[in-house]
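Ticket #4471: structure output looks truncated?

Reporter: J.K.
Steps to reproduce: submitted the chain below (128 residues) through the standard prediction queue, then opened the result file.
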Amino acid sequence: MSYYFSKVLSLPFDAAVAETTRKLKDEGFGVITDIDVTATLKTKIGVEFRPYRILGACNPSLAHEALTLEDKVGTMLPCNVIVQELAPRQVEVAAIDPVASMSAIDNPALLEKAQIVRAKLEKVIRSL
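Returned output as attached by the reporter:
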């Protein structure tokens, strides 16, 4: 089982980030964290790295349901979506498969919620 699903877009990097954020919103997710890996690596350890962002996507209703089912599931939230430039105008967007990560928890009701989140994230990736 793969732990993510992805798609390569023919867009400039910033446009891919904006489009990904918009598509996430369309599926009920907000981006509650946005980590600029490129800037962080430059600032913290002085290395150059390709454009790379980690978007922490959260669907508040589904997150609440998951937290009521399993209080430690917050260690696996939010759902990370990466946007990385492979080459100019070649940007990969990849999302975590929450079913893969949540399968580590023995809770069938939580796995059902993870399948709903998976379907929404897969729809986001397909729609890009």
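Triage note (M.O.): checked the attachment and the full token line is present. The chain has a mean pLDDT of 97.
Status: closed, working as intended.
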